[in-house]
Amino acid sequence: MEHTKTYHSMELDTTEGIIVIEGPVPASKLASLDFHEGLVAFRPPEKQHKALIEIADLLEGRIIIAREQNTIVGYVTYLYPDPLERWSQGNMENLIELGAIEVIPKFRGNSVGKNLLKLSMMDPAMENYITITTEYYWHWDMKGTGLNVWEYRKIMEKMMNAGGLEYLATDDPEICSHPANCLMVRFGSKVDRDSIERFDRLRFMNRFMY
């Protein structure tokens, strides 16, 4: 499968000033930008910056960023699912995962996340993919936002909807471990029926187990 990447960019007028949303951004450009110290949801900022550079270098890897001048203030990542996850077990070349999305507190409430997702789906190549995201409540910044788990889940779901991802059921044990966790999926318009059926078998791997 050919993993073409078509760059798009837009300006977003926020309450904190204008920022640029752009991508997929190549590793060389990511390396030349500063990484905001408030991007701490998944690992320390310097390590997450390095991880984004490594993802961008992957054949299928895609990084879309929100940038205030020369500083990355938000991002979303797309890459193949972790080999340890069930989603990689089908060896599907056209299944990619929205692995992480994060925006610094300063710009939250300005639809930055929604626009990161909207811009990422402007690339015609995304129509070739089944795009998934697995949402786990323990990654959510409920302390920083003051929201409870269900309020945060509602916001996450609305944001993912902006990128065309919709809730789908699964029997994945980690997702089923808490009712707020969920699987969200977008089927690209060029995804064939066979791929959808293969994906459905990944969604429900335990249906015949007693």
TrEMBL record:
InterPro entries: AcuA, Acyl_CoA_acyltransferase, GNAT_dom
Residue span(s) of domain N-acetyltransferase: 19-189
Residue ranges that the Swiss-Prot or TrEMBL entry lists as coiled coil: none
Gene3D superfamilies in the record: 3.40.630.30
Identification of the protein by name: GNAT family N-acetyltransferase
